């Protein structure tokens, strides 16, 4: 038996929330960034990122799944031809939420949610270089620990040999 999701519905029923998130995602993909309340932005982020991940895969099944959510074919086409390939090498984190001041009328906390720029070649190279540096530093620590353990074994072995020689004498 289907059970409703827990938590706030953002001013309406579950069906209203579903349509609201679909419209927010549609506007986000159309304009690149939108200004909304913090609560709506936080609810939109995983929803939109899931759609971008489907667009990255780019097959017919995923296109139909996205079309069932976003009914505007031109925006789905943009999502699959421009936005999805832009994040081809990015493993996630396609959106950024930036808090701005409160809204003037009702003092509601506002935020801007936007699609982040794709990683450039230089940024990817920098990220790979940083990862390699971290790996080499970790390897150096492990080797240093191994040499300390080996030195300790050699010292105890020399001590044992000296003790045996003194017993023989």
TrEMBL record:
Biased composition (Basic and acidic residues): 131-169
UniProt-listed GO biological process terms: translation
GO cellular component: cytosolic large ribosomal subunit
Keyword set, alphabetical order: Ribonucleoprotein, Ribosomal protein
Annotated Pfam families: Ribosomal_L17
PROSITE patterns named in the record: RIBOSOMAL_L17
Tagged with keyword ATP-binding: no
Keyword Ribosomal protein: yes
Gene Ontology terms, MF aspect: structural constituent of ribosome
Region (Disordered): 125-169
PANTHER family referenced in this protein's UniProt entry, alphabetically: LARGE RIBOSOMAL SUBUNIT PROTEIN BL17M (PTHR14413:SF16), RIBOSOMAL PROTEIN L17 (PTHR14413)
Family: Belongs to the bacterial ribosomal protein bL17 family.
Assembly and oligomerization: Part of the 50S ribosomal subunit. Contacts protein L32.
This protein's name: Large ribosomal subunit protein bL17
Organism: Streptomyces liliiviolaceus
Gene field: rplQ
